[in-house]
Specification:
This protein has about 300 residues and is an alpha/beta fold. It contains eleven helices and ten strands. The protein folds into three domains: about 1-80 and about 285-300, Rossmann fold (3-Layer(aba) Sandwich), CATH 3.40.50; about 85-165, Cobalt-precorrin-4 Transmethylase, domain 1 (3-Layer(aba) Sandwich); about 195-265, Cobalt-precorrin-4 Transmethylase, domain 1, CATH 3.40.1010. The strands form three sheets. A four-stranded parallel β-sheet has the order 2-1-3-4. Helix 9 (about 210-220) links the parallel strand 8 (about 200-205) and strand 9 (about 225-230).
Length: about 300
């Protein structure tokens, strides 16, 4: 998510405003507003971008159909799709070519799912729940695979995959799980702190799938949780009788919002702060190669 935001910032620095972005670059209200103020223009569809203009595809990815429209409109595309999402797209293409029915575990309305579905629409079925699994009717039970949206809850994915394996013993899965490492690490951290806290506050926007999953993980562990954009949204009633508050954030939430929340909690009497790290995060993705090449060309005075 940080990588996608960096792509927009660098593009604005290289080319100046406006830079068009299909959908929200990440699902965080503060980040999107900051980029808008810097000259990024968010559009819902590619046909809203002036012909020949520069457009960035968001971290959630796009379908081949969207890429084709961009090509037909002569748009200068910078692809900020998360590499983990690209991995799922490539898996969908591979399984479709092999004649498999692809069971895509995810939320139908999410942009990432729409992009993955677009890679092999004739071969893909979306499931959101165990009930969806029960209703499946595939042409060949021996040629079935599953893929997942990268921002799902580990718990909900595990249950659905387990049921799929019961129904289709020959089902194939991705070589490595599709859930984003940052999403997984945050969910594991919530599980770890749940026995030690009375309340969890998640910094993230309401349209952020991975942020919502953190709330669900906490509530499943028996700890009340609330999703907030910033410290101003904390209801004092939530803190009544609470001795320990845990704070976490969605993958695209800016760190300053987390620190502001911690400061607000301290002002309300929660003075002792303990940072708990369940696992380290040392994965770094490079910027899109085309953007790096353009930046190098600019630095060399060769960019027109």
């Amino acid at each position: 998510m940080v990588r996608a935001v960096d792509v927009v910032r660098i593009a604005l620095e290289l080319y100046g405003a406006p830079i068009y972005v299909r959908k929200e670059i990440v699902h965080n209200r503060y980040v999107v507003e900051e980029l808008r103020n810097s000259g990024a223009v968010c559009v819902d569809e590619i046909d809203e971008v002036p012909e020949g203009a520069r457009v960035i595809f968001s971290a959630h990815g796009v379908s081949p159909a969207v890429r084709k429209i961009a090509q037909n409109r002569n748009l200068k595309v910078i692809d900020a799709t998360c590499p983990l999402v690209t991995k799922v797209h490539l898996e969908a293409v591979k399984f479709a070519r092999l004649g498999y029915t692809i069971i895509l575990i995810g939320h139908r309305e999410h942009e990432e799912v729409a992009g993955t579905l677009g890679e092999a629409p004739a071969s893909t079925v979306i499931v959101e729940t165990i009930e969806d699994v029960e209703a499946l009717d595939v042409p060949d039970p021996a040629r079935v695979c599953y893929l997942t949206q990268t921002t799902l809850s580990l718990d909900e994915t595990t249950d659905i995959v387990a049921r799929l394996k019961q129904r289709y013993p020959a089902i194939q899965g991705p070589p490595a799980q599709d859930i984003c490492y940052a999403t997984q690490n945050r969910q594991l951290a919530v599980r770890a702190v749940a026995p030690r806290c009375d309340l969890l506050l998640v910094v993230g926007s309401n349209n952020s799938s991975n942020s919502k999953r953190l709330v669900e993980v906490s509530e499943k562990a028996g700890v009340p949780a609330h999703l907030i954009d910033d410290a101003a949204e904390v209801d004092p009633a939530w803190l009544s009788g609470v001795r320990t508050v845990a704070v976490t954030a969605g993958a695209s939430a800016p760190e300053n919002l987390v620190q502001n929340l911690i400061a607000a909690l301290r002002s309300k009497g929660f003075q002792r702060l303990e940072e708990i790290q369940v696992t380290g995060e040392d994965v770094r993705f490079s910027l899109p190669s085309d953007l790096l090449q353009l930046a190098s060309a600019l630095a060399a005075g060769k960019l027109v």
